[in-house]
Every structure is written in structure tokens, then in C-alpha cells.
Amino acid sequence: MGDEDLLRVSGFVQQVCIGENLLSTPIGFVSNFHQTKTLSIRRGFLLIQAYIFIAISILAGGYFLIRNINFYRNEAKLKEYLQTSPKGIAWVQKYGMEKSLEHARKMLIPLGCLAGLGLMGVGTWNLLKVLGMFH
Q: Do 116 and 70 touch, CB atoms closer than 8 A?
């Protein structure tokens, strides 16, 4: 195939390596300069989407982690949140303020920290994969 090496065919899509670029094309797609340029633009668009997902997951994870750490360290902020948030109000009405504070500090805030770390971990892992650190 010359400069084009057919890597994998699955279903109706083939992956073709042109130079250093790995491109997915429909089977039977003849690659000339114009079509290769179009595929590169599509690949770039998919990369932009990947970077947007990565940025959102890292930023959201960082936000939730910092927010939960602040709630854990400052009981006044947690109490204010329980008094003003619709979910917090429901918990306070159901269990009372002291039980709600205790439950939030023992279970909900640590789980929120784990969720924030998980989001940051997923974003970081995907960033490393996109940058080519892991295959």
C-alpha cells in the first residue's frame, strides 16, 4: 500500500496509518491529498472534544474536592449549607441538625472527596492517554 498501512478492519471502518497519523475511514475510501486533509480536520475536531471532556472533568473534580474539604474543615459553612440547600433542608427535617451534621461529616463529605478525586483521576488519565504517555 506504499505510505498507507492498513492496520485494522472492523465492521465498516478501517484504520489507516498515513505518515504518523492514525485515521479511521470507511472501507473503500480512497485516500488522496484532499481526503487526507478532510480526515485530519475530523481527527482534530475529535481531539478538541477529548480535550474539552478532560478539562471539564479535571476542573469539576477539583471544584468538588475543594468544596468538600472546606465543608469538612469549617462546620459553620456545612451548617449554613444544610440550612439553605433543598437537599440539606430535607435531611435536617428528617433527621435533625445534629444527626445531619454527623452523617455529612462521617459519610457524605468523604464520599464527595472520593468522587472529586475520581473525576480528577479520570481527566488526568485521559489527558495522559491523549498526549501519548500511555497506550
A: no
Mean pLDDT of 65-73: 96
Integer Cα distance of 123 and 120 in angstroms: 5
Residues 6+ away with beta carbon under 8 Å from 16: 4, 5, 6, 7, 22, 23, 24, 25, 31
DSSP letter string over 81-131?
A: HHHHSHHHHHHHHHH-HHHHHHHIIIIIHHHHHHHHHHHHHHHHHHHHHHT
Question: pLDDT tens for residues 19-67?
Answer: 555 555 444 444 444 444 455 566 666 778 888 999 999 999 999 999 9
Mean residue pLDDT of the chain comes to: 78
> Measured between alpha carbons, how far is 1 from 5 in angstroms, rounded to an integer?
6
Residues 89, 83 contacting (CB under 8 angstroms): yes
Task: State the Cα–Cα distance between residues 33 and 35, nearest whole angstrom.
Answer: 6
Q: Where are the domains of the chain?
A: 48-130
For the chain, report the end-to-end CA distance as a whole number of angstroms: 25
